[in-house]
Design a protein that fits this description.
alpha+beta, five-stranded antiparallel β-sheet, Immunoglobulin-like, single chain, globular
Amino acid sequence: MCGECADAGNVPETVRRALEEYRALLAAHGPTWGEDPIHYVRQLEVAPFVPDEREYFVAWFLKAVECAEGSTGPHIEAALNSVDMHEILRDVLGGALPDNLAALRLTPDGAHVEARPRPVFAAGARHTTTLLLDSSRDEDARVEIDGVVHDLTPGGAVLVPIASDSKVVVDDVFVSLDAVTRQVAVARLRVRAGMPCRWTVVGDDGHGWYPPDAPDRHDAHAQPYFHGDDIVLDVPAEPLTILVTRGAEYEIAEVRVHPAPDEELTVELTPRRRYDAPARGWYGGDMHVHMNWAGNSVGTPEQAAAIQQGEDLHVLNLVAGNVSGVRVYDREALEHWAGRDAPWSTPRHIARLGVEYRNDLLGHLYAFGMDRPPELYHTGFLGSDDWPPNAEGIRGLTARGAIVGYSHPFHLAVSEDGEPSEALSDGRNCSAREIVADAALGLVHSLDVLNHSDVHATARVYRRLVGAGNRLAVTAGSDTQISFTRRGNQSSPPGWERVYARVDGDLTAASFADAIRRGRTFATTGPWLELDVDGHGPGDTLDLPEPGGTVTATVRVVGEEVETVQLLTSDGVLAEGPPDELTVRLAVSEPIYVIAVAVGQEHVRSMHRSGVYAQTSPVHVHVAGRHVAREDDVRWCLAYLDGFERMIRDRARLSDDLRLADHISLIEAARTVYRDRLG
């Protein structure tokens, strides 16, 4: 299946050793892999059990605000680090339990176990899971599990890995774990589509079923899935729902079955195409995917290959990156395969090893298509300086042939006419704060308008940047982590949101990167989106000889999940209406850009909490050689830089004034660009 990576014996020795090291870290530390326990690392402990990340993060933040007694900035960060994550999980669950979590309820009257029992095929079959120790007692409590004592404060909660044969003792009494499993008859199921696909096999009790040794992956809808074709797996002899799809360009096919005990049932089910992007010269990619980034499992090249084929993801950028310390995960794979396609690549499916360059105050970036590893991967971790500016890291990456764009840019809401302070926000939350400077200086090629953060906030900042005269492509980076099998949309399959790029000639890493450089892109959670302005598409420039000319703009969309399409210019919404096609003729007196957008509510086809979203890069309409530089947007960027400078002075960790001066110099260079555009 995977050529050089078909089995562990063919993985390069340096990569094999790294994977073994990751397995040891997982065994020793759990999902955090022993990373420095800053707030987003501590959250990894509970991530596999959180049904709704939004609800969890709100509860976590509100508890931190309560602990900080109304303070902001560093006090909130410290409070986030001190909040008891297990108690927050217990409170958010509110008594409900996911399929991978049991609960030991300690009440004033005793103790009992609750669970959604896992079907097992033999009496006494061993099943591993996690037990939430949940005390509603007014006094301290002590629970002994397999000889290890766990102390709980009044009203406390603790997560403990267990097996169905573990020995649990409370108040010197053994507590039964019978509720954790139930015995069922076994059947065999063969699923076949005729091509690699994404499969879901799930019982009416919500438990998913997988081939041998496959991780128990769940997507943002908490739906189990695995990849491949012509696969045999053991299942309970009970009613099952089977679904199959193959990424954005395919429908979801579904069937209900009830296999008989001790028999093999074959299900042949093939999803239909919604659209064929390569036939139109477009190829879809995910610019930000981690094979390993801590997690409750260890990602492998073989898994990455199966997922890419099963999602029909044309371009996969597997980024090496750190978490909260100095270790760069998958660095060994990057060093081995840098500058060439990963060995499972085909003419229609290109995989490359790239980089996530990270500073939590300045922002995170993806790099794709580099010819050799960089010298610098991150700054600002473990108390080190926020230096040099991201701009220097970007220059090092582009010197190696990479295209670079800011990832998961903005996490907090930004209103349509909001102040720059809304985009800057507070704290070290990975927002793309340096982008307004880097874009002015032409250092970055794109912005991941589609990401796992706030899409609408990012889209509004993107329009400010383009309106101020910056040329940036729209891209998509899911930040999926293959090493996490359950973490909301970050355990969804790579390509659950993707950037489509219009490529000249054959698909290669170079041709795909060139299309992004030229802005010939749209990003989508699934729908096909097409923009035409007098025969010009995204990334193109239409130069009118003088003011007063007219152009015709048309947007077309394919996707039943879309509810509204829009045409936007630098002046705002030009027109909107229902799908499938919208055409407008407009007079052009000043330079403008034209963007198409498609939106919809939450939908089974979209794994983003914001619902359905797609957006093109602009068609640039110049007038007499002049490009758009809208005064309001330019002044917004200048005000943003003022706030960014204040943040650097107040919040950046810098050991001397020379390092501060490097940041100020970068900001001043960007100010000069924007001031010139006002002229």
